[in-house]
Amino acid sequence: MTVNRSKVVIIGAGLVGSSTAFSLITQGICDEVMIVDINKDKARGEVTDLCHCVEYLNRNVKVTEGDYKDCGDADIVVITAGAPPKANQTRLDTLEQSAKIVKTIVEPVMNSGFEGHFIVVSNPVDIIAFYVYKLSGLPKNQVIGSGTAMDSARLKFFIGEMLHVDPRSVQGYTMGEHGDSQMCPWSHVTVGGKRIVDILKDNDEYKNVDLNEIVEKVTRVGFEILEVKGTTCYGIATTVAGITKAILNDENKIIPVSTLLEGEFGEYEVFCGVPVILNRGGVKDIVEVHMTDEEFMKFKKSVDVIRNYSDRIDIFSL
Ligand code: NAD
């Protein structure tokens, strides 16, 4: 009898990669976490430190340092290698550098015989996920960008804070670019089943709330964290762990991630954040929500931003 062991490879042992490893290990989401980084000392240091968690975890998780050739038996490869934007840059400004880095990663991973799922975290994530899809030749359902999954967690947090409810009782998400142009289809945001637009209407206390300001806050907060601590890591790490869990446990959980649109929302050949059903096969289906005209216009604008940047670089000629 063979027992299948779940293995997740994390490429990039920086703040995002090592925090993701920590989140996977402490939640016991998989049997093995392998870390790869061009900086071998950094990878070794993180692995050694993480190995020492095991005694106090609720299960034994193997943590290893590896190479691209060891990715063949992985269920998931998470790409976090990249350069976080500096204080005066947007995520889109890091495109060329990130594109060059992922190009050196995807080919050797595929040469290892890897047939699993890529979860792309490196920014600008929508465009980089599209490149990983193109470079890998894997089916579209197996290449997933973290997209607006973390932004949506932030959105729920801010709404929960405003209404004094648990963020997990908020249903809703932002869509489009994981970046400045993302939008929220407010007509689909509910709290305990009640539409947020009705909550604001029914309660004098909230009559002056401007929902657009909440989206602006979601967009801005990453940079506010960046300014004071250099990068963001715990939110994205826990988000990636959640995506990984949905895949490995075949959860059919709905999470807004970056995926290839092929006619959905009238868009083609572009990766962007939309709600999807995630299970063992990766992206099972896209939830095509019906937006108001104004929401739909904002969504289209955001998709245009991604496409314009995507068109600027030919990954194959880098
Ligand atoms: P970091 O500088 O701390 O770490 C990056 C790591 O990548 C380094 O250890 C570096 O050695 C490694 N690396 C570079 N080139 C490599 C290569 N060719 N092969 C293997 N490893 C390589 O950066 P970070 O803070 O961990 O951020 C990493 C990426 O994640 C950035 O692109 C950042 O913008 C992105 N990010 C995305 C989100 C999201 O929501 N999608 C959130 C936060 C950060």
UniProtKB/TrEMBL annotation:
Annotated source species: Anaerocolumna aminovalerica
Entries under InterPro entries matching the protein: L-lactate/malate_DH, L-lactate_DH, L-lactate_DH_AS, Lactate/malate_DH_C, Lactate/malate_DH_N, Lactate_DH/Glyco_Ohase_4_C, NAD(P)-bd_dom_sf
Major subcellular site: cytoplasm
One cellular component (GO) term of this entry: cytoplasm
Swiss-Prot/TrEMBL keywords: Cytoplasm, NAD, Oxidoreductase
Binding-site list for substrate: R91, N123, P124, V125, D126, D151, S152, A153, R154, T232
The protein's name in its UniProt record: L-lactate dehydrogenase
Superkingdom classification of source: Bacteria
